[in-house]
Amino acid sequence: MEFLNLVQGDNQTVAEYELRFAALAKYAPEAVVTPEDRCYRFEQGLRPEIKKGLAVRITNFKTLVESAVRMEEAVIEEKKKGEEKRKLAYTMGESSRSTKRGTGRSFSAGGGNFSRGGPAFWGNSGPRFSGPMGFSRGSIERSSFTVPPVGSGRGAGQSYSRGSAFTPNCSTCGRRHLGQCWGPDAIPRVCYNCGGRGHISRDCPSQTPSSGGSVSRGAASQSSIGSSGRGAERGRGRGRGRGTGNRDGDHTIGGGIRGSGAQVNQGQTQARIYNMTREEAPASNDVISGTILLFDVEAYVLIDPGSTHSYISSELTSKIPGENSPLGYNLMVYLPMGGGVVVNSVRKGSLVRIGDVTFPVDLVVMDLKEFDVILGMDWLAQHRAVVDCYKKEVMIESSDHPKVVFVGERQVVPVCVISAMEARQLMLEGCEAYLAHVIDAEKVNPTLEEIPVVRDFPEVFPNDLPGLPPHREVDFTIETFPGVAPISIAPYRMAPVELQELKKQIEELLEKGFIRPSTSPWGAPVLFVKKKDGSMRLCIDYRQLNRVTVKNKYPLPRIDDLLDQLKGATTFSKIDLRSGYWQLRIAEKDIPKTAFRTRYGHYEFLVMPFGLTNAPAAFMALMNRTFHKYLDQFVIVFIDDILVYSRSMEEHEAS
Hints:
By secondary structure, this protein is α+β, with helices and mostly antiparallel strands. The protein contains twelve helices and 27 strands.
């Protein structure tokens, strides 16, 4: 019950919570039967602020714990930043209350200066300070500076007075804070339909209506890519937006938005990167990872269709030829854990080799930890690559070169093992069970000459039985209940392949003398059962005969008792009798009861066949009489399996 209600405490780290979770999970195995159940229980107990950051359902427990730890570190870092901001605001408030004069507020907006409550010293724009910083008689101890908002041009901003506890309202998110805004509205929205900025795909003005008309002018917009020193041309028509060119050397993608007079100006080109760890990549169906050659240098690559650009780690650039070139603009790369990184250099003309074909690629230089290279949509689109995330394959086909297929790493599926009791319980609940025989087709059986000791007695190990075995002390008998009439069953239907095998085996048995044609009133159908080596074993369906047969009560040994005798043994030889049942003759009076019916005739056995109810007991009695002298010394016998065991190789050879 404690495990089902387990949650992460307010003062408990993810590592401490994971230790407690693992300790209690041992006492509730039914609650964490599968890895998915274990991950679900663990995730539900996390604190809300950590669980909220795990947007993707993770089914690998180790990956889930690592992701939760990283999210916990991000939450702690965010709290520290918030505390620092609050302390700064409190310190400024205390400073304003300590001044004897000059408690006014000063603002600067759109280039105009306003002052209230006393004189202030104002500049044009940008962070600048004026006025004395200390206290002096007859002067106003106050200085002011300007905080430019995100996306604004030079000469526009908000000025803040140190002599006041007032924090200005952000024009982007509406909240009071200093510095650059990182709120959700500060990141411009990108349309997945047209690539423009300032709107999303459902509001895209270039989207063709389903009814087939033209887009109304009031909803129209245009997007433009600004170049150095040039602004986007204002679109015609009412309601069209206008883009702006790049400024201060930063690459700008300007996109008009709905309404007149709207202006979008981003100081940097933005890119997305959905990077992940080496452990997460093989398990993810969204990306492909593996090893490629970059200028004949092995590099661990992540092929990520969700990344807009291709990247190379700054560490790998020192190992390959070439020099870094300036990108020409600042590229803001947004990371999945939040925040962004500005990069401005590129390694142009890098050569990626897959198989015998090389592909050029421009790689943006960036500090990468988990991967050496990330190939994004720019490279995939350039070479018209087809990505199969399910098979973890990338196919590149062109008239310039033969078809190339890159096969990435695949997650190794763990072997799922359950106990016999669990399997029985699942079958009782209605689950289907299948019995499968696995055969190693490449395994080569050793020859007689390669086996020590055995090779000294080749006459004991013939390739096949030479003929009928001799009559022994006791032959196999079939005693039926008094007054039972002969039983005859029609042959079973067989496939053509089985009929061919049946005809072949009947001819072999006739040739060896194990069966003979019969006129018996008894008759049983035949069927085939697969052996361990894949061959077919001919079995007779004697179930009707077994129902009227008096059972032999000869005891079969317990496996546990046999294994107890192996204590201290180190050397073993296993002997499996060849056609063991056929080494026991049937009493002459009971031969007609073994008759079986086939499409090719009526036959009866002269040796003990498979399928008779008393066959195991009769054969066990024969083996015990044969090995009675050596039992419990160095031989174990179970029906037709013989195990010779010794404490040393010398003792084994002497036996």
